[in-house]
Amino acid sequence: MMASSLMETVELRNGTWMPLLGLGTFKAEEGGQVEQAIKWALEMGYRSIDTASIYGNEAGVGKALAESGVPRDEIFLTTKLWNDDQGYDATMRAFDASLERLGTAYVDLYLVHWPVRDKIQETWQAMNAIHRSGRAKAIGVSNFLEEHLTELLNGSGITPMVNQIEFHPRLQQPGLIEFCEGRRIVVEAWSPLMRGEVLTIPELVQIGEKHGKSAAQVTLRWQIQRGIVTIPKTVNQDRLASNAAIFDFELTEEEMGAINALDQDQRTGPDPKTFGYS
């Protein structure tokens, strides 16, 4: 797909529009660091900000958004429910606490951060109640594999709108992607640049040289051309600008195929089969 600007979006199943490129805030420190990163991002035209209760920076994210001058309805704000807060009542309390820290009446997307055994159904019931209340425009999950999604769907019949997963050239999870796409679950990539490791992959460097782009820019371009939402994390102003400079070129079918061939089922983060699911 040819995406041409930071304003490019993908439609979620309930009609909500989500930007294809956003800013992740994992490990962005509460206070000045995360606030400055968001200020720069919004000035550059970013409109999607992703955080989580476990990141410990929701207050800083909310402060930066409030002080930015950008209308709240122009910003797509995501936060996530941590494992220790799962279960119906705990989920409701955790969501209220996130809203309070963020200083907003609603979020655009609320995600279950990881699947937790024996709590998936109860947690998902609470997520749906939150969505029906209007305080989350969309709901979804994060790090759910096919078996987790199947369990969720079999129990509730209500399909998540988004699944945020680790996705990059070395971890493409084609079966999971196909499963999600077949059910209109939008896939969103975390750790899209492999914590910088994409810069050392020769094939990406070579493709970048043809376009006058970095391996990181090639990787992000590949993701959005596949229709996958991506949220690279950085608190560096130059990298924020570089990550956004991916809308003035397009990868060829051959280049897309070459990147697709780089898959090695290699994770940089925890495995959802075991993390939080024991």
From TrEMBL:
Keywords: NADP, Oxidoreductase. SUPFAM superfamilies: NAD(P)-linked oxidoreductase (SSF51430). Substrate binds at H113. Its EC number is 1.1.1.-. The keyword Cytoplasm does not apply. It holds the Pfam family Aldo_ket_red. The record marks K80 as: Lowers pKa of active site Tyr. Residues 21-263 form the NADP-dependent oxidoreductase domain. The active site is at Y55 (proton donor). One of its GO terms (molecular function) is oxidoreductase activity, acting on the CH-OH group of donors, NAD or NADP as acceptor. The keyword Flavoprotein does not apply. Transmembrane segments: none annotated. Belongs to the aldo/keto reductase family. PANTHER family: 2,5-DIKETO-D-GLUCONIC ACID REDUCTASE, NADP-DEPENDENT OXIDOREDUCTASE DOMAIN-CONTAINING PROTEIN. This is Glyoxal reductase. It comes from Kolteria novifilia. The lineage of its organism: Bacteria, Pseudomonadati, Planctomycetota, Planctomycetia, Kolteriales.
